Amino acid sequence: MSPLLPEFIQQAEALIQGGEILPSGVNHLARRLQTAVETNTPLRIKLGLDPTRPDLHLGHAVVLKKLRAFQDLGHKAVLIIGDATALIGDPSGRNNTRPPLTEAEVLVNAQTYLDQASKIINLEKAEIVRNSAFFNEMGLQGLLQLTAQVTVAQILARDDFSKRYSQNTPIALHEFLYPLMQAYDSVMVRADLELGGSDQRFNNLLGREMQLAYAKLRGEDPTSINPQLVLLLPLLEGTDGKVKMSKSYPENCINLTDSPSEMFGKLMSIPDAMILRYETLLAQLPEQQLKQHAEMLADPEGYGINPRDMKVGLAKFMVASFHSGEAADLAEEAFNALFRDKALPTEMPEHTLTAGESYVLVDLLVEAGLAPSKSEARRLIQGGAVKLNGETKVADVLATISGIPTESLVLQAGKRKFVRLLFVQRMGVTPIK
RNA sequence: GGGUAGGUGCCCGAGUGGUUAAAGGGGGCGGACUGUAAAUCCGCUACUUCGGUUACGUUGGUUCGAAUCCAACCCUGCCCA
Question: Which of A56, A152, A234, A271 has the fewest CB neighbours in a 10 Å radius?
Fold first, then answer.
């Protein structure tokens, strides 16, 4: 074997940065990288995504960006659309069974996933595999063979399962299958490295075992097998700064499909303590800059900086990378106008009303989508949340409103919900009954 | 199959006959403040034609009155087989 070259060690270090490689040690990865170049066979980098809910968020972006980094070095991205595994739902980090999905939902979500992933990775150069392709073929025998490779004790050793088990919360048997199936993915796509969040440790490591097990079944020499490496990346906390960003808590997520202003605003809402973490995992700023930011954040007054401005920088960077620089500028302007200067937004949904008619405000709030029910609308008014044209606060629950033709009024509920009311002349003749 | 403990609002969780639309916490929403949709503080958190109506696994029953008592059923944990 040729000696390990420093350039590949450096490459490996850069790739591992922020994450954890298993088995641990830079050299494992460096060796693979070098061999790949020497033999001119790109590494197969596996990432599995379950189309359980249609939107990818910035948590996924952390892993996808890493996948992109491998792509940029000429390696093969193997994207698994877990349309079979999605029928179970990953029990990782869960304390209860996931709600099942219909097959139709899974299909729609899968397509959306690919569209969104294409914002980060180069989809044309990636290999895309739906795991239903081989799981549907597997048959009972295949399933039994798969399940025979792992013992119940091994599965129960997994943290989530053992916790649920000891807390007497139900575990459905099919949930045990999830790690096995994910591991089998690795066998089928002959993965050299699997990417995952740090909660994927068990599943990804099982992939190694499974690759070995199946190699033995095929009668291959176990010593000649190189099971996949595992690169685990930290889980990004959501906008609350506490719980990891997860599809299970949509309000805590920043989605890749979020509009520029939405993405900007959500990034501005992360706690100050999260700034550095986002910069590390998402913006992937150079180490030096991160260090500098850490110092400044530790003593904002001393450095004469405002953490807010740092957040603005982060928010603009992210919006620019998912939308465009222009969109980022516009989002910043709109944000400042709306929240700093408390101006009305320039664009908002419209709701058309007939001029001269009298409308009860409570009804209007519901019709215009500003409140989910009339009771809620009343509460909003009582809480002082409802304003007209940004000025007049409505205090009366029984208030009514009417307008003259071509007049427009801005109805506002809270700081973020606006609707423009347009009054038009009644058209034609109203039929009289 | 036998025994036993449970099933409460978006989530967790108190409540064992009557001001209980149901304590407390989390989450969410709103307000004030600010440097932002940070932090902090405060309020709200079933629906309604404002008469009421619907809610504590389901369906019946007892009672002037039930989340609370009774019966059957469904679901979950644990022990035994």
Answer: A152
Q: Is the CB of A142 under 7 A from strand B?
A: no
For residue A233, pLDDT beyond 60? yes
Measured between alpha carbons, how far is A20 from A197 in angstroms, rounded to an integer? 10
DSSP, collapsed to helix, strand or coil, labels residue A276 as helix
A329 touches strand B (CB under 7 A): no
The answer to whether A384 CB sits below 7 Å from nucleic acid chain B is yes
Whether any strand B atom is under 7 angstroms from the Cβ of A53: the reply reads no
pLDDT in tens, A348-390: 889 999 988 889 999 999 999 899 999 999 999 988 899 888 8
User: Which tokens go with A60?
Assistant: 């996924």
pLDDT of residue A246: 80
Q: Which nucleotide is nearest to A259 (CA to C1')?
A: B37
**Distance B34 C1' – A422 CA (angstroms):** 34
CA of A283 to C1' of B30 (A): 34
Q: Where are the beta strands (DSSP E) in A132-264?
A: 193-197, 229-233
pLDDT at A312 exceeding the cut of 70: yes
pTM, two decimal places: 0.81
For residue range A184-194, what is the model confidence (pLDDT) as tens digits?
Answer: 999 999 999 99
Query: What DSSP assignment string belongs to A258-271?
Result: S-HHHHHHHHHTS-
Evaluate if the CB of A297 falls below 7 Å from strand B. no
N-to-C CA span, chain A: 93
* Mean per-residue pLDDT of chain A: 87
Chain B nucleotides reached by a protein CB under 7 Å: 27-32, 35-39, 43-50, 76-78
CA torsion through residues A299, A305, A308, A311, sign: negative
